[in-house]
Structure of Magnesium transport protein CorA:
Amino acid sequence: MIHAYGLSNGSLNKIYLDETIGRNPDFPVWIDIVAPNDEEREWIKRTYNLSLPRPEHLRDIEASARFYKENDEVHLRSDFLLGKESRSRSVTVAFVLFANILFSVHEEDLPVFYQMRMVNHGVSDLTDCKDVLIDLYSMDVEISADALEEVYGELGEVSSKVLNSRLSNKHAASVLVSIAHAEHLNGRIRRNLMDTRRAISFLMRSKLFTLTQLKDVRQIIRDIDSLDGHTSFLFDKINFLMDATISFINVNQNKVVRLFSVASVALLPPVLIASIYGMNFKHVPEFSWELGYPFALLLMLLSSAVPFWVFYKKNWLK
């Protein structure tokens, strides 16, 4: 699907594809292409003499493959966050600046692009295609900030559970799942922020921006630096909560092991008594005693009760 937008009084205005062929006043500054098929790719190539990048070429992570100039084209590959929950993922978007038009190619529609298409009709400060790209990066940083706030909220709930002195193993398992979700989302946000910083730095080095645009992108860089500090803090908090939760699990396991240890020690004397009187000898005095059997049972009971009483007094059973 192809969405084409021109500029009208500094704001985006959707135009039809047949209007993009003639270079009229509504000639597009932004063409957003979602999951293009072969026909749409061929139409772009025929109309604008531009070959759109293929999905298999969007996965490279080295800088030389993500940010480069080729002839009069400026190519960028940037990751955008899709979803704020534990199943969030990054979707790579290919940008091409060519002939004063911003081409964006992505396989899935993203909140940033949807908001840009819907919200920016009332904005009146866009001057060219580079302003559109700057606004897309700015909105992506805002979405990352919102996602970080959700991570803060989730970790706040986890902290209240972890700091509970009666954290059971069952609750600890759910806490570990929540921590893993928060770590996944926080790591995804940080990676996207780093990728956005690299893209903007490349554009700044390419000297494509006006002074006003440079002011805007420097503000985006400052916002990214601020959010980067938050992601570092959240990683430290996640590590602390993970260590604390595992420590609680170890404490609970030690309690179980201690009970078994106490039980084995307490039951050792009656086992010893039973072993003595279970020896198969002819001359055991108690064998001929009429009260020998109840005496042995009473002795076994007392020998097990005394250790339990001692352990109870020393609070070893708690």
About this structure: The mean pLDDT is 82.
